[in-house]
Design goal:
The chain is of the alpha+beta class and 322 residues long. Helices cover 42% and strands 21% of the residues.
């Protein structure tokens, strides 16, 4: 079975350090990153070492995702948040692969490097801070909470993003949190703002509302159901959505920015082609369960957990909308 082969491959899988030190890989790296190859290898090994799930991914997919990040001159360090290599279960091939996923800080870096932006900002607006936002003039009036700790604990009610070019042109957006929740609910199959019944491995489960999830009111044994980044880092995904909406519609798009938006949410195959992968429906998130649970579930009903892919160009619209 594919799953059994996958488990064998995981046990016998060459470590990322050994893989990157193979002569043929070294030659590829020398050609791709030149004198920066030692720094590149060190950063990739560091990123993989701190993520046990990423260690289960195929080495070629990790290398491909990291090379894509390197081509954009971005760091894979999770602490920097410029881009991520996200484990994704390829059910058809019975292996885990690394998906390239931009972080909002990566988009900020690319915008700054273009030299076109005098100002660029994205911010969560807290309860009691918003006085008004005029969408016609794109002017916002707020009274920010001055105490940083108090502000951090306050409830988020919306998101604001703006840029100003060096020539003085400005653009700004404000979305309420309810609008962002509706956006995530519509475009991400793995996220639900309201409670809903789902079927996993033939069994009914209740997925709690996002409000209950934020409050911690959900069975801890079902935590794997909430593995989407919209659950794990809603603000980060909201910032990323705001920047993509703002820059893709009105911003100066450098070649690197175009490439980054093109590559976001992709799995890069060994032949160099990209496969766009949305967050999976709940029925497919079984891959995020503990390995022993995952194995028994997949063997009993493997047909339920097929990888979902999207044609090039469609996944970006599907996840972030236009």
């Amino acid at each position: 079975m594919a799953v059994q082969n996958s488990l064998v491959n995981r046990k016998s899988k060459m470590g990322i350090t050994a893989f990157l030190n193979q002569d043929n890989v070294k030659a590829q790296l020398s050609q791709a990153v030149g004198k920066n190859s030692m720094r590149f290898v060190s950063s990739v090994v560091s990123a993989v070492t701190v993520n046990p799930a990423l260690q289960e991914c195929t080495n070629p997919s990790i290398l491909s995702a990291a090379l894509l990040g390197e081509s954009l001159n971005l760091s894979p360090s999770p602490q920097l948040g410029q881009y991520y290599m996200v484990p994704y279960e390829n059910k058809k091939e019975g292996v885990k692969v690394a998906q390239f996923q931009m972080g909002y800080k990566g988009y900020i870096q690319l915008a700054i490097r273009s030299g076109q932006y005098r100002k660029l900002n994205v911010l969560a607006i807290k309860e009691g801070e918003l006085i008004r936002f005029n969408p016609l003039e794109e002017e916002i009036e707020v009274r920010l909470v001055e105490d940083e700790e108090q502000r951090e604990l306050a409830k988020t009610i919306g998101y604001y993003a703006m840029f100003e070019y060096t020539n003085g042109f400005k653009k700004a957006m404000y979305w309420s949190k309810n609008k962002m929740l509706a956006h995530a609910d519509r475009y991400s199959q793995a996220f639900s703002k309201d409670a809903k019944e789902i079927t996993v491995n033939g069994k009914k489960k209740t997925k709690v509302s996002f409000a209950d999830f934020e409050a911690g009111n959900f069975p801890k044994d079902d935590e794997w159901l909430y593995s989407s980044f919209w659950y794990k880092d809603f603000d980060g995904m909201a910032y990323k959505t705001m920047l993509r909406q703002l820059i893709s519609k009105w911003g100066v798009m450098s070649i690197d920015m175009v490439n980054a938006m093109d590559a976001d949410m992709t799995v890069i195959k060994e032949d160099g082609t990209r496969e766009y992968v949305d967050n999976r429906p709940e029925e497919e998130i079984i891959a995020e369960q503990p390995q022993e649970t995952r194995q028994s579930s997949q063997e009993s009903a493997p047909e339920q957990y097929e990888q979902q892919s999207f044609a090039q160009g469609g996944a970006e619209d599907a996840l972030f909308g236009d």
